[in-house]
Batch of 3 targets.
Target 1
Amino acid sequence: MARKVLVLGEVRDGSLRNVSFEAIGAAKTVAEGGEVVGVLIGTSVSGLGNELIQYGADKVVVVEDEKLAQYTSDGFSQALSAVIDSEDPEGLIIGHTSLGKDLAPKIAAKLNSGLISDATGVEEAGGNIVFTRPIYSGKAFEKKIVSDGIIIATVRPNNIAPLEKDESRSGEVSAISVEIKDLRTIIKEVVRKATEGVDLSEAKVIVSGGRGVKSEEGFEPLKELAQVLGGAVGASRGACDAEYCDYSLQIGQTGKVVTPDLYIACGISGAIQHLAGMSNSKVIVAINKDPEANIFKVADYGIVGDLFEVVPMLTEEFKKLKVNA
């Protein structure tokens, strides 16, 4: 059954987030040969339309307004609802990001539709579009379908492969006018405490530290290793509580949930709350002095040793590999 499926392209600092392209990949499966329509909301975002098309969107609809310069639930829901009214789609896919987790339920409620959140896979099976999502903090997975109404889902970053970029693809990028009114929230300033460099939620490589790093300075070797690998630095809640780093780095049940290709846990014991945020990483390497540490139970590779000796050695070896590559 061919469907028209909308995909919200999420823009940060003037660029599209990778999860936008992954969402297009998911939308292609949901569309089953139908039309995938990219949606861009904000100010001065129309120039990004061609990039969505190059990653698989058939056309792009843009809503621009000065009131949409920063994300607000009211503003973006009005804009996206207007696009839904004009396009009349059978599906809507959004990234499972802070924006998506706030916006998708609001849109689903307006449409009186169900919502499948945090999907890590999507496939066609038995005439249905089947989504896979983790439950019980990643200990199990469930498969869900939408049996009635519009298919609305959010997809977890780094889980659904995007289509290969094709710069020869072309399509229509059009704008619609939407009156954005009655905003109950106005964003006057955005102060980011996140670290510079690779976005933690979309990083392919994450080097994470726990209480074993012992101090703020203890994160320096981890930062160097992450930089060499082109990755990001994360932390357990224990490290954040000890004020070794900012809570923006926290990975776990009460922090960010990540699924990188490579997760290197340094001085992390492996509390269940932390495992809930990273146990679905494709490859897990654990470095800990305690051979009985719980983190080794989920690790693909374990190194029993002092992280302050092991991490610099790894960094030097990776540097050699990069030079010889």
Target 2
Amino acid sequence: MTPAVPTTPAPATAATAAAMAAAGRLARQLADPHTVWPGGRPDGPRAWPQSLAGGAAGIALLHIERARTGHGDWDTVHTWLTAAVQGDVSAAANANLYFGAPALAYLLHRATTGTAGRYRGVLERLDAATLTLTRNRLTAAHRRINLAERPPMEEFDLIQGLSGLGAHHLSRHPHHEITHDVLAYLVRLTEPLPGPAGLPAWWMDVAPTGAPHVDHPGGHGNFGLAHGIGSALAVLSLALLHGVHVPGTTGAIERICAWTDQWRQGENTAPWWPGYISMQQAADRHVHPALRPRPSWCYGISGSARAQQLAGLALNDPQRVQTAENAILATLRDPRQLDTLPETGLCHGMAGLLHAAWRTATETGNTQITAELPRLTDRLITTLDRSSHTDPELLDGAAGTALALHTLATGHAPPPAWDAFLALA
């Protein structure tokens, strides 16, 4: 099955124009690394230049996308790519889609498609490093499964693990052997392991932080798109939708969906999924409504509903697609849910909801969702205008917000999709 051709009409002209103006304003503010970071580089735990989440690499992605769609210039792109490759590029065991050689390969794949191959030589070297890294990560993951041990979060999640590397390989070279190998691993990840009845194979023996904690003595089951099984669900579904068939993929998607269906909350017209569940909740078979996550990309509706929609499309299950779209629509219409997202960014804020809703609506031509986008756009821009300072980074800051607004305004995200790193496309 191939992805649907976008059929949703663009939002109201006023909202489109406002989004384009806001995206352009943010992009201009982020044009020069020396202005963005007068000290030479940002501060913080994810501020390395080659970090897609918080460094120069992430801001480069904004400028690449604007240049590819005719709204930016390639000189600015080159400036930011130069900033992103400062220092030694990491291809260590902890490199991932969001950091190091894979992150830069992800960027240069997109830059190369818009520059007649200007960066092809560098990209090939980054490809080689990323292939070696991925093979090593796969070897370790299969060794863990052979020992019937529970997975660590960094093995399979989107940000640190093999779901993220799979998203990159699926975008970069969908029919390459490494892509098939990662998908085969994700299938195997869902196959039962020995242990307590009712716990899926992806149940982790750690807390949601990724480390053991006394508050989670039995570990947890994670639904999120950033750190949970939602990432594997989205990548496996995208593979089928793009015609990449690996034995067992359908069964793996069905196993994940059976578990998420078991824990789906709310009415059919306004469903939601937990961000994660504890061992006690699993034993009680109950999630208190107060534990409903914010409708963010990382753990909430923005990510979980899109993953469910992709699964429904991959399985040819119109009811699942409808349920997912109902979840997004109900959230967009619920002021109480919107009030829980005061931030503007992709990961935890309104930009993530806006872009996930745009992707969801565009996929199937859902005009009801599309009709709600101008109101959220206005809310996001108003918040930006009232803010005295916005972090420049991609995942939680201005670069990601600008990308969401730019995509809404243009109504187009040309392949290779910039938002593959979010497992939204």
Target 3
Amino acid sequence: MKSLKHNEVWFLTGSQHLYGAETLREVAANAEVITQSLHDSDQISVSLVFKPIVKTAEEIYAVCQEANQAKNCIGVITWMHTFSPAKMWINGLKILQKPLLHLHTQFNRDIPWDSIDMDFMNLNQSAHGDREFGFLISRMKINRKVVTGHWQDPKVLESIDSWCRAAAGWHDWQGAKYARFGDNMRNVAVTEGDKVEAEMKFGFSVNTFPVGDLVAKINAVTDQELSDLLEVYENDYFLADNLKKGASRRSALADAAKIEIGMRNFLVEGGFKGFTNTFEDLHGMKQLPGIGTQRLMADGYGYAGEGDWKTAALVRAMKVMGTGLEGGSAFMEDYTYHFDPANNMVLGAHMLEVDPVLAKEKPKCEVHPLGIGGKEDPVRLVFNGKAGLSLNASLVDMGNRFRLVVNEVEAQEVPFDLPKLPVARVMWKPLPDMHTGCSGWIYSGGAHHTCFSQSLRTEHLRDFAKIAGLENITIDKNTNLHQLENELRWNELYYQFHK
């Protein structure tokens, strides 16, 4: 995923015939200028498409119907340049199936103090035209994002793009398929969930495939495919001495490469966007997939371990949202704590599967015993993560709704060599502090599996949650545990009545 420009956001401008042909021509011209400016901006990741201004209920209904059917349309931006009586929008909005952003702006940034007259006032009415439209959206209880400010303000562009990226992630979920090799890790609660409800609500499907189907693909790998991938490993990573050509563990590297090729062929042929597996079901495989899973994630596939299909889907969505941004998003697990009172930190890792998009430097490729799974020693990429502002996100099934829990964190340089821990690892400090951040996560029911991101901000996740109809709990520098517990109680009451 190198660009999101194939995704279209349609720009819809509301007006009415009351103002006459000349005013309507100026409304259309201004709207087209704004659309083109947004489209050309380096701050906007998607393509903006100008649509003729809408002046009647019939025109609004038709363009909403068209947006629903347009394959590349991922959402619409609405703006009321003049006063657009909002009852005209009811039937169109009732059928609109694409995410909605309401841009509360006006064409001119400044009031022209010396020349302002009633003609200017009749044309530039968004200050109250948008309020009329806003009332109707609130009355219809439609989820949307409101962005207020001048359309050339960089902060406004940043907020618009956050929503565009969230809309792209949502669009990617529609019709997506995720493969579950085997079943859930036995007796684990949080990785379970209602797959039927998820498909109804989110648009993606999750189906189980026997590991034997994957093993068949692994066994069908050709010598040429194997040779080509081993060459990639040699060029892209620091190979441990015992994995080099002719060395004692070279066969382990070859087995890992076959697993990667087999998984990739399975996913490509089936049109899958992500997958999950469990070390409790590896029948016919020589080792637990390590480097193969890491590299597939780096190429954009969603993944989570232990049958956790929800996190696999979230990882994929966050990768789409972060397309072209610095950093990356990756499957992660809070593994253990450093409770030094002067330097509280979390050590994040997983047995094998942490995405190299987080790597501070060129990863090492090594083979070591795992201690679980009962298979041969797996090959994995070993590296330290980068420092910087980051976040952890978790998607959990609360029974009557899905909840997205987000904790802002500060990633740290890994301060020790960790010579006996040969896995990829990241260290961070939860915000606002270790006690509040970790306790808040527990109160919120956040999972031990997350998507760790150094490319996305909380705003991206809030926008995504709003589009997807997710309950959203955010733990950040302003979080107070007492207030958080109250928020959770109020939310529980809300969802008892809101179906």
